[in-house]
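thread: overnight batch results

M.L. [08:02]
morning all. the overnight job finished for the chain we discussed friday. pasting input first so we're all looking at the same thing
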Amino acid sequence: MIAAAGAFFADRFRRWIPDSFVFALLLTFMAGALALVVVDDVTPVGVLDAWQKGFWSLLAFGMQMVLILATGYAIAISPPAARVIDVLVARVRSPVLVYALVTGVGCLFSLVSWGWIVLTAVMARELAARVRGVDYRLLAACVYVSFLTWHGGLSGSIPLVLNTPDNFLITSGVLSATIPVARTIASPLNLVCNATLVLTLPLLMVLMRPRGDAVREMKDLRREKAGEREISVEEEARALRLPTRNLSDALNHSRAIQWLISAAGVWWLARHFRANGFDVNLNVMNVLFLMLGLLAHGTPARYVVAMQRACGNVSGIVLQFPFYAGIMGILQHTGLGSAIATALAAGASAATLPPLAFLIGGVVNLFIPSGGGEWAVVGPSLVEAARSLGATLPPDQLAGFVARVSMAVAYGDAWTNMIQPFWTLAFFPVIAAGVRLQARDIMGYTFVALLWSGVIFAACVTFLPI
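M.L. [08:03]
and the structure it wrote out:
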């Protein structure tokens, strides 16, 4: 039955879901129209001004994403990565194990950092190239489904903001103190929720696997000429040498230079973790990926070639980030986001606010697929609602209730990514390189995962202790 459901929705979504850029444009029009209808005193000019205010607000974040993709891809095409994949392939020989491994390991990677979805995609691609009978579309869906755990992990935007001194909720008077990660990431609610996802999502993806003639392997989806052998990074770097010995080539291919700068980077990372604990943010991830890539390729010339290949895959982020920033501007500067949160939370009780917050997180995520950006828009309204409904609780229990509502929003943010193709930009440059694969090819499978994970998330935020 699950396999039939996966096939049914996969077929429908391939015909219904447009390119992710078109999706961004449609959401822009929808956000503008909703602002005009829902928010009092908003004019078309006001919507346009709000859109323009937000349009360039994610430039720094966009550059961080470009770097994390490019540096992650550079690691993926390095000799050490190939050796690790060789070890994995020696032990994983059936499609069932491939689907389960990619989904399960990917869930664990996402708990460490959402940026590690790139590594999941690398593993998936290499396994698909070496194990026969793997349906490549379902495997790409496995990578995206593994992203469901990210907001309950160490890089979760909302729990990290709540634990940050002088965060915007404190400076605005909405909260009086930080909420420690023991109440959010390390809470029984979050631990049980993520454990359930890690254990059940691999099984769900295995049950959806196509069989027989319905299977489309990676080789079946290759573009024309994609089957031709591509020279390795090392071979291309070697071909750039001049025919005679010279100083410039000696510097370009110097291992000493690469090792010295890598050592400096590793030293900085060690000092950072010693001073801050396991604080993994985007800047730290980019430094880590840069240093690993430098070490993995060995010489500056090889790393330059690797990065040239990697940077050919980031066009989606460069194109789409400004449009989603514009959508965020509409929701934030017209008051539409706050109005949506307030309207949906109106009439809620202490028992119903957490599941409603989960739904609010899911709805707003369709327009603002950035956890931090979404929390900036709806967080104040929902925290105020939680404090109002929990006003009679002791301070410790009130903090727990605010944490529950906050994690509900976090889960909603992760949940509707399964029908929002934006974050496919984070791994499609790897998984779709050289093959005919689009976001619409995987969204039917991820929709089934959305239905299953929605039950888990809703049950956890409603019934489990924080």
